[in-house]
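Q: Can someone sanity-check these two? First one:
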Amino acid sequence: MGAQPTTDRGRLTRQRIVAAATEVVAEKGALGASLDEVGARARASRGQLYHYFDDKKDLLLAVAEATNDIVLDGQRDLFDHLGTWDGLVQWADALVGLQQERGGQGGCPIANLLGQLGEREEGIRAVLASGFDRWEADIRAGLAAMVKCGELRSDADVAGLACSTLASVQGGLVLSQARRDPLAMRRALDGALALIASYRPIS
């Protein structure tokens, strides 16, 4: 692993390189991304790249970590309200709305990178898996809060529901991307919501 920055200037330079690399990988794929293009976009020399990163693999590991943060931080405000049924629906609607804005293009950045590198680079696979773990944990925490406040019954399998909900998200993203049709995302998440709703108390 390359040198970890010890100054604010160094940290900013490293962050700039990772941000540029994340953009290039998103546009051209992990295999098509070149260090020269990353350096040009980050306004960083080859020497700076190799100061902070041992090689391209090391840089891609940082891209995987950054990709996790981008995907999860983008949902942070929504995650904070998952402890209510309305908040859960709002989160699902926001994910569908994003696919509608994109016309079904893009898919999940974490899954995209996993598909490119997961079977070839064990370290990167593990980092991306931790991103899914964090995503599932946020959903699980929201569902657990719903049980605690009485919006879901105490017999709700919170862990199982969280896993199946994330699987619905990923399946919906894949089908929306393949078909260029956000309706697949809507249907996938409606199915997840229906399953969760089956554990709501009968009023």
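And here is the second, same format, sequence then tokens:
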Amino acid sequence: MKNVRAVRLGAGFLAVMAVVLATGRWQPVAAGGASGSGYRVLKPIESGDLTLFPVVRDDGKSLPADQFLTLDEGLKSGEVEVTEAGKVRGLVRSRGDGISQMYQGDQVNTLVLVNNSKRPLLLLAGEIVTGGKQDRIIAKDRIVPAGADPIDLSVFCIEHGRWTESSDKFGTSAKAANESIMVQPTVRQQAMVAKDQQQVWDSVSGAIGAMAKAAAPLPASSADHGAYGGTGSTNLNGAYSAGAPARSLGTTSYAKAVQSQAVAAKVDEEAASVVKSREEALETLRQEHAVGVVVAVRGEVIWADIFSDPGLLARYWTKLVRSYAAEELESGPAHGSASVVDAQRFLDTPTHGAEDSQGEVGVYRCLEVKSGGTDLFTLESLLPGTGYDVHISRVKLRGQTANSQMMRPVY
């Protein structure tokens, strides 16, 4: 289904006055004049080169946080099942098996999902599912209604070199209970914006190489000999060139790399000030009715995730923060210190570019707007009793982001 609607996040989205960056408890920043959007930015908290600006609604309204089921919750409870396309027959309900005819075997960019819960399922681009023949990430934001037929779950592979089954069904990758992971923004961007498997693989390869270097820096005498991967590359057949970055961590899987002991410790270190007291942070977010964050790395504002209510933000908080912290492991130039004004300017980017809308009648609509060097994604729920934006992402376009192209499987 193709639909286009007006974007409600126009100029003046988060008009605020300049403030001095401060640590400690977040405090609201007075809005500078009428914002017209109902949102405002709070003072940031910083952890190393990572800066997070909480975002709140001016009206203080809170939508029901438990209306949607998350992927982590659904997989953990067993109410949501994800499997390779070739196993779809095992997911089809007794009312018929016609759906299974849609799938002609396992495919790299297709998994099948069924939501057996009594709540609609919220899926976010970049969420990781592990198992099957390769680890994958969700390709786009979407909503799956309760009790729906099995759906074609558009995905991208984030694990080169494996096409052998490790499990019948997929789960979330977690080193601890309730601590699943999401890919970092550079990888997420390729899935959401480029929509290109090769670019996803390239970004995964680069990310794993950066993780290896950050987790175990080399002596200067060794760095020039490519011991940590140099500029290794990947291709559509799953082969790595000599000295590919992933080899330094002994895996081609993004999930395994980021959860390796050395990398996980480094991510924890980078995010220490943000996650060291998770409950305290979440309580503060709830008190301030924060619904999202604007993200800056090394002083450059690169991303924003905004939800419909504080409850949803709290449920995604840890996995989002860790994904942002993983981004900090990538090398790059410093841009000074990001300010509230920088965050405002990022969110205020005019949304008058090319638009593309996809969705399902009566379920959801996802609008993408390209303009001003950014991409804005808005997921709107169309289910009965909703009719509001559930999740908004704004992405600063970095690196090579190409148009979608046909993918071919890796065996």
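A (reply): Looked at the second one. Residues 199-261 form one domain. The longest helix spans residues 197-215.
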